[in-house]
Amino acid sequence: MAKTVQNFNAEIKQLLDIVIHSLYSQKEIFLRELLSNASDAIDKLKFQSLTNSSILPAGWEPQIRLVPNKESKTLSIIDNGIGMTTAEVNEFIGTIARSGAKAFMKMNEENKTKPELIGQFGVGFYSAFMVADRVTLHTQKAGENDGTVWESTGDGTYSIDQVPRPEGTGTTLTLHLKEFKNEDEVSDFTDAWVLKSLVKKYSDFIAFPIKMKNDKGEEETLNSQKALWLRSPSEVTAEEHKEFYQHLSHDWNEPLKTIHYKAEGTMEFNALLYIPTKKPWNFNTGDMAYGLSLYIKRVFIMADCKDLLPTYLRFVKGLVDSSDLSLNVSRELLQQDRQVTQIRKNVTTKILSTLKELLLKDRSAYENFWNEFGATLKEGLPADPGNKEKLQDLCLFHSTHSDKMTTLEEYVGRMKNEQKEIFYITGDNLAQIRNSPYLERLNEKGFEVLLLVDTVDEWMIEALREYKEKKLQSITKEGLDLDTAEEKARHEEEKKQSEVTLKPVLEVMKKTLESQVKDVVISDRLTTTPVCLVSASNDPSAHLQKLMSRLGQEQSMMNAKRIMEINPKHPVFQKMLEAGADQQAKWAEILYNQALLTEGSALPDPVKFSHQIADLMIQAASGVKH
């Protein structure tokens, strides 16, 4: 193949422009990113060789080498990892606008994301252009004889040529370093002391030796290659954990919590887990990878092993190193391995107990965690019944008690003697449900209500059902029991009187709204609002129907009709008694639409409702009586 020149696509051009013209000072992070890529390439080769040993060159020993050259002002990063084919070079470097690249550019535009974070977006290779005005990559895929040379100055084009790599399998990345006008602006990346310091700072934990020749021409290893997880937890400093977490996750924040332990007994493994402080940029997106890295006897097997972690703990980063699993295990066999199931169970228990400890000992830190990952953790209640009791005690809720969040245990401890159930309401946002008419009577009686606004809450509540023998009761459903025996007797009598007084209005409303509601009845839950809609005890809530509709599954809810409750003390019903049947029917439609609005539901015919309100305003202004 003859040497060809090709164009970067538009997104990569834009990304390169951001990197090349970056004004940030932390240019040294390019080395962290490129060493991390080299380490990943060796990991991939080791993993593939477990099932195909022929791809390993004779006498192969994993290593990464740094070759600085002061005279030519170049720095080469050389690995003997998996290498790439020409097609892969084109795909991963030159042409594909991956979601990570797009996300990095979007965040850079919105809030000037630091280039320190570039690796988090999977585009760390381009950090080379922060310090180099020309980058040459020579790579050869394991098991193949043809090599590929890729070169670019970051000007919008790159060249591709096929040339066998003298060292065979692996990759050589040569950076032709820039001349910086201000010598204080950036370190000399051909200086041995600078390179040693940067490897120690950013890449000390890489599992393969990073080597460089010293002044005597002897190769020395720059990194400790410490298997941090095999050391005693008491020997590892917070700074070491921070560096390792950042190396592992590409997250520039410090971890919120570190879990470092060794399981012994019927199965043995070491685990090093981190709970992040902040969500990653792609959390809960389709291209988000999650799971723990799996090592067996210190041999890297795979990243993002989902079998080691339940989905609702997908925010946890870290690794497990097992002494018992087989080295030639495949991803399919992992799913069937009893030991993996036991490791997952053990790791889950440890994470949940750590979160409980954080909740009890540092409420402020736990609330910060909850604001980031609480909705994700709640997924565990319907998904993991075996850990229901642990999970329910970790949940925090907004409530009408105060602006501070509450646990269920704290809620129950505040319950009034006459309160029989734990009350809750679901909705789209706090501002909407804090002012909901469904709260009127409960507020009057001083009953606390949980305010649930996460999408998962509808399913979480179905799984929870009760706590400490107290049933969880939606305040938007029929049969709300708020009264003492004496109050019930009084309200029942008042209800009978209202049914007699308002019988003509009730009959018109039932007939007018028969296609929209199951029934129209007298309410004892409203104090200032004229009407509300409530669900039958076994029917889905309006909020759940709305959520299912957004997911395109409204038919599965069968669009259950609800019950309209009216407040007999509201003056609108006295006015309706004085009006004719036609006017009563119009007002019934208006009241139904008002009930939809106050609960946050969409109107079936907004234009008609707008005209009806306009007509009412005209009538009121004209002094027309009906």
From TrEMBL:
Similarity field: Belongs to the heat shock protein 90 family.
InterPro entries: HATPase_C_sf, HATPase_dom, Heat_shock_protein_90_CS, HSP90_C, Hsp90_fam, Hsp90_N, Ribosomal_Su5_D2-typ_SF
Bias-annotated ranges (Polar residues): 150-160
Segments of this protein annotated with the region A: 1-331
Cellular compartment(s): Cytoplasm
Region (C): 547-626
UniProt-annotated binding residues for ATP: E33, N37, D79, M84, S99, G100, Q120, F121, G122, V123, G124, F125, T171, R331
Protein name: Chaperone protein HtpG
GO cellular component, one term: cytoplasm
Keywords: ATP-binding, Chaperone, Cytoplasm, Nucleotide-binding, Stress response
Organism expressing this protein natively: Bdellovibrio bacteriovorus
GO-annotated molecular function: ATP binding; ATP hydrolysis activity; ATP-dependent protein folding chaperone; unfolded protein binding
Domain of life: Bacteria
Gene from which this protein is expressed: htpG
